[in-house]
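Please predict the structure of the following assembly.
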Amino acid sequence: MKALLSIVPLKNRLNGSFEEASLFQGIDADNLAHIEARWRPMFEQRKIEAKKTGESLAEINAEDAHWEWGKKAIAAVRDPFLFDIFVLECAGNTQAIMLVRKGGEKCFSRHPDHLRAPLIYVDFLSTAPWNRSRLVKEPVYKGCGRTLISTAISLSFEEEMRGRIGLHSLPGAEEFYQDQVGMTDLGTDRNYHGLRYFELSISNAARIFNP
Amino acid sequence: MKRTMTLNLTDAEMSLLEGLCEEKGVSKTALIRQALRLYKSVDERLARGDKVFVESANKAEKAELMVL
């Protein structure tokens, strides 16, 4: 069900060392079990604490806590022509997961540099709760989200889309996509839950892969 | 696994295909793959009972899109 794509280094922020993480295309029952048995209880516990302190889900970076990855994974596995799913594993745990669309709706650029050109659309991306700086006091691994976004960019190059990717960001992740990844903020999309839409242009994709 | 096929097109069809590839900056394979994905995506929405519309830029006309 899943194939190893590469081994990538992840920085363990607790001890400063780099550890080997495995990047897979596809998903298996172990990943879904990790999400249900290890991710979900942490999210739920933090949400209870946030409710007491009056913090919003965006403030604790848990706006995606309700996503049902089991259903998303089944949809992706059933339709590999339109979808791809990737997981990042390290230290025997699922550290991050991403579902992308490779064609059809949502897969056309809105960027003024290349309007209507095809792109890879990042439908969903989540990192494990213990890696999130606003969710836990001492986050563990750094670079999980960036690794998966780089994977989406690589896929875009493979599909002759020249690195173009697009996504709608949850409010708590906007800063990451704009400032850390270098995506262009193309404004609020009234047709998609009022979320802001971001795109990585060809020129910025090239900069990421050839700095 | 990838498989190879021969596609018989008229001059006009080939010219259109090559023009689109030039305009989009992709190979014929990539363009046809994207066209198939779009077709499948729209077809699935229609099969679920959803509707797909095309609206003119000035919003004066709106037509329902049907596919084969």
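Helices of chain B lie at 11-24, 28-47. Chain B touches chain A at residues 24-27, 30, 33-34, 36-38, 40-42, 45 (CB under 8 Å).
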